[in-house]
Structures are given as C-alpha cells and as structure tokens.
Amino acid sequence: MTNRICHNAALGIDMNVDGVTPNNTPLQNSDGVQNFPLVGSASGSFNSGVASGAINAPPNRDYLVQICASEACDRSGHGEGRFWIGAASVTTAPPFVAGFYSSANLSIPVSLAGGLAGRVVSAIAIDTDGNTSEFSPCMAYDFNDLTFADGFD
Known about the structure:
The chain is 0% helix and 37% strand. It has no helices and eight strands. The strands form two sheets. It has a four-stranded mixed sheet with strand order 5-2-1-8, with no helix packed on it. It is globular. The termini are far apart. The mean pLDDT is 85.
C-alpha cells in the first residue's frame, strides 16, 4: 500500500458502495468480493510489535495481507489506512471439504517510527489477481512495554 486511506466520510474501501460488505461464509460464494482478514490481536512495544489473526478465503491461494494503523476506527468499527505498518504473504490451506473456504493464520511484524501506542490497527487482503478486500474491523494496539509501565524512565 502506497496511498494513505483515512479521514473519509464513509469507509476507506467500500466494495459495493453500501457500507461494510460481510465476509463470505465458509461455503464458497462467487460474488467476487475478497474477504477481509480478521486481526485477533496487535501488541508489543511503543514502536514495534506483532499483529496476529487469520483470513478465511478460497483454498490453495496466495494473499498479500497488509496491516495499517490509524488514530481511530471508522464509524462502522472498521479501520482505515493512515499508516502502512507491515505485510506478509500467506497461502490458504487445502479445503477439508470440497467447495468450502479454508483459512491461513497470520503473525505479521509491525512497526511505526512515530509509535503504535494509542493507535488502532486493521488489515486488508489482496489476492494474486489484484482483488482487494475492504478494511477489517479495527482493534486497539496493546502497548505492553514493561520498561516504562510505571511511568518512570
């Protein structure tokens, strides 16, 4: 991601121009909309940490998952992309049942020179055809650096 997507009156990325498009269910749906990843946790020190989660999408496919940070969530509870803070390529597993989506777990190092403490993070996924998802629901970055936990330095 090279563009900042933030401070919008609506969603930063809105596939159908109708608000948040829910992720497809585990049974594959050919609506052409890329599922967004889900960030389950984001934590670490002031400037760097790890964002973890998963993406549920068509099986045996490669995705670039990009993690972004912003000052606040969108009104929808989904994120925006003021700062690009990390990315990783993931591949979804073969399906357990033919015709169903599969998932890939995420553990992506993140960093921001201006600091991650006090920010929210969200993610997008891009498949090999260039299809992108909407931003995921956002989550507060958990600043857990114990060095300065008591406020003294």
